[in-house]
């Protein structure tokens, strides 16, 4: 057999193989194309881990029933709008008239720091800054010399300044001290209560602070 005949037959065989391969791998136009490398499976993205639930907010401190803000029967000759501080019983009364008053639980001065007398509110401030007076710095030199107003400030959300004294009626960032004798003479309420009181009184309001030695029974009786 001549070399030319062998080459022609080999070329025919190769062409036939190519035609068969093309037919085998051809697909209808409407069919989805096969993946180039079918042994590489597509990666399935894993579901993200569940988001951890946010921790519940700490429960707010709940005052004892007697220290919660409430309207009570309260008989006094003082004019409506007057504030009366019942030091022995740790109450603040805002006289409403007609034998009634709004009663708030308060924190008062610790032993040796209570006081009594009559003052007027000379200034009001929202989220007041705190500058401890020199007397307090002398007793507690670790105190800051000045603290900007805000939730961490011991004066709380509101302050009402009494005359030319160093004393104030103010809020607190520690409501657990209401009903206690812990301050250096200021009168503290919860922030909610001091905001309420602040909205009801004005500069010039008369404030009567009863002495600790006035051991009269609690004059305020809850309205049933």
UniProtKB/TrEMBL annotation:
What Pfam families does this protein map onto? Answer: YkuD
From which residue to which does the signal peptide run?
A: 1-31
The family database entries (PROSITE patterns) matched by this protein are listed as: LD_TPASE (PS52029)
* Keywords carried by this UniProt record: Cell shape, Cell wall biogenesis/degradation, Glycosyltransferase, Hydrolase, Peptidoglycan synthesis, Signal, Transferase
Q: Name the domain of life this protein comes from.
A: Bacteria
Specify the taxonomic lineage. Answer: Bacteria, Pseudomonadati, Pseudomonadota, Alphaproteobacteria, Hyphomicrobiales
Species the sequence originates in: Bradyrhizobium retamae
Q: Which InterPro entries match?
A: LD-transpeptidase, LD_TPept_cat_dom, Transpep_catalytic_dom
Cite the CDD domains for this sequence: YkuD_like (cd16913)
The entry sums up its family as follows:
Belongs to the YkuD family.
Gene Ontology molecular functions = glycosyltransferase activity; peptidoglycan L,D-transpeptidase activity
Q: Which biological process terms from the Gene Ontology are attached to this UniProt entry?
A: cell wall organization; peptidoglycan-protein cross-linking; regulation of cell shape
Q: Which SUPFAM superfamilies match?
A: L,D-transpeptidase catalytic domain-like (SSF141523)
Q: Which Gene Ontology cellular component annotation is one that this UniProt entry carries?
A: extracellular region
The active site consists of 170, 186
Its pathway, per UniProt, is: Cell wall biogenesis; peptidoglycan biosynthesis
Q: What name has this protein been given in UniProt? A: ATP synthase
């Amino acid at each position: 057999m001549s070399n030319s005949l062998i080459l022609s037959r080999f070329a025919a065989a190769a062409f036939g193989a190519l035609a068969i391969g093309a037919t085998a791998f051809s697909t209808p136009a409407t069919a989805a194309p096969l993946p180039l490398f079918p042994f590489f499976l597509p990666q399935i993205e894993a579901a993200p881990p569940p988001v951890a639930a946010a921790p519940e907010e700490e429960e707010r401190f709940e005052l004892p029933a007697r220290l919660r803000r409430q309207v009570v029967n309260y008989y006094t000759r003082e004019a409506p709008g007057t504030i009366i501080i019942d030091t022995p019983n740790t109450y603040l009364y805002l006289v409403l008239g007609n034998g009634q008053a709004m009663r708030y639980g308060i924190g008062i001065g610790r032993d040796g720091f209570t006081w009594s007398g009559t003052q007027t509110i000379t200034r009001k401030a929202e989220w007041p800054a705190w500058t401890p007076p020199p007397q307090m710095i002398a007793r507690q030199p670790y105190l800051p010399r000045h603290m900007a107003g805000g939730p961490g400030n011991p004066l709380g959300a509101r302050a009402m300044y009494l005359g030319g004294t160093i004393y104030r009626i103010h809020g607190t960032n520690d409501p657990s001290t209401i009903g206690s004798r812990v301050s250096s003479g200021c009168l503290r309420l919860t922030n909610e209560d001091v905001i309420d009181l602040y909205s009801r009184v004005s500069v010039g309001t008369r404030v009567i602070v009863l002495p600790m030695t006035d051991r009269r029974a609690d004059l305020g009786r809850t309205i049933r």
